[in-house]
Amino acid sequence: MSEKAKWYVVHTYSGHENKVKANIEKLVENRGMEDVVHEVAVPTEDKIEIKNGKKKVKQKKIFPGYVIVKMIMTDESWYLVRNTRGVTGFVGPGSKPIPLSDEEVRNMGIEEAIPEIDIVIGDTIKVISGPFESFIGNVKEINLEKHTLKVLISMFGRETPVELDFVQVEKL
């Protein structure tokens, strides 16, 4: 089964999102289905509220009444999620769940897209934006998590290390 897990939107009773998330996770664990149902998320964002002159950061649900599930769609996984207490159904036409596109997943901030980069340590690059634009340099380090490169750029006759974003450089 080389099928890739995708994100599906599940409709829940309003206010039951966290309960549904916990219920699905418990059922998945009890039935040993971690290889099929990978992750359950309730997308939230931080909202800053000011009450009585005090700043409070509150987590606000971005989509009240919905839970996002990353899973491989099988009859068994569909049944498990669909019949979880608090779930009213999958989002999609009829009873056919439609996975979110990669772009929708990125826009929701559920999963960071890992930029692919065809640059390796030792490559010569040209800076295409930012304060070092049009400088040429050699890649000394690549940080995939931060999406940055450490590049030695020749400035004023000496090599100067600078940290650049993946999007600021192109391979020569």
TrEMBL record:
<dbReference type="InterPro" id="IPR015869">
    <property type="entry name" value="Transcrpt_antiterm_NusG_bac_CS"/>
</dbReference>
<dbReference type="InterPro" id="IPR043425">
    <property type="entry name" value="NusG-like"/>
</dbReference>
<dbReference type="Pfam" id="PF02357">
    <property type="entry name" value="NusG"/>
</dbReference>
<keyword id="KW-0804">Transcription</keyword>
<dbReference type="Pfam" id="PF00467">
    <property type="entry name" value="KOW"/>
</dbReference>
<dbReference type="GO" id="GO:0031564">
    <property type="term" value="P:transcription antitermination"/>
</dbReference>
<dbReference type="InterPro" id="IPR047050">
    <property type="entry name" value="NGN"/>
</dbReference>
<dbReference type="InterPro" id="IPR008991">
    <property type="entry name" value="Translation_prot_SH3-like_sf"/>
</dbReference>
<dbReference type="InterPro" id="IPR036735">
    <property type="entry name" value="NGN_dom_sf"/>
</dbReference>
<keyword id="KW-0889">Transcription antitermination</keyword>
<protein>
    <recommendedName>
        <fullName>Transcription termination/antitermination protein NusG</fullName>
    </recommendedName>
</protein>
<dbReference type="InterPro" id="IPR006645">
    <property type="entry name" value="NGN-like_dom"/>
</dbReference>
<dbReference type="InterPro" id="IPR014722">
    <property type="entry name" value="Rib_uL2_dom2"/>
</dbReference>
<dbReference type="InterPro" id="IPR001062">
    <property type="entry name" value="Transcrpt_antiterm_NusG"/>
</dbReference>
<comment type="function">
    <text>Participates in transcription elongation, termination and antitermination.</text>
</comment>
<dbReference type="InterPro" id="IPR005824">
    <property type="entry name" value="KOW"/>
</dbReference>
<keyword id="KW-0805">Transcription regulation</keyword>
<feature type="domain" description="KOW">
    <location>
        <begin position="118"/>
        <end position="145"/>
    </location>
</feature>
<dbReference type="GO" id="GO:0032784">
    <property type="term" value="P:regulation of DNA-templated transcription elongation"/>
</dbReference>
<dbReference type="GO" id="GO:0006354">
    <property type="term" value="P:DNA-templated transcription elongation"/>
</dbReference>
<comment type="similarity">
    <text>Belongs to the NusG family.</text>
</comment>
<keyword id="KW-0806">Transcription termination</keyword>
<dbReference type="GO" id="GO:0005829">
    <property type="term" value="C:cytosol"/>
</dbReference>
<feature type="domain" description="NusG-like N-terminal">
    <location>
        <begin position="4"/>
        <end position="112"/>
    </location>
</feature>
<dbReference type="GO" id="GO:0006353">
    <property type="term" value="P:DNA-templated transcription termination"/>
</dbReference>
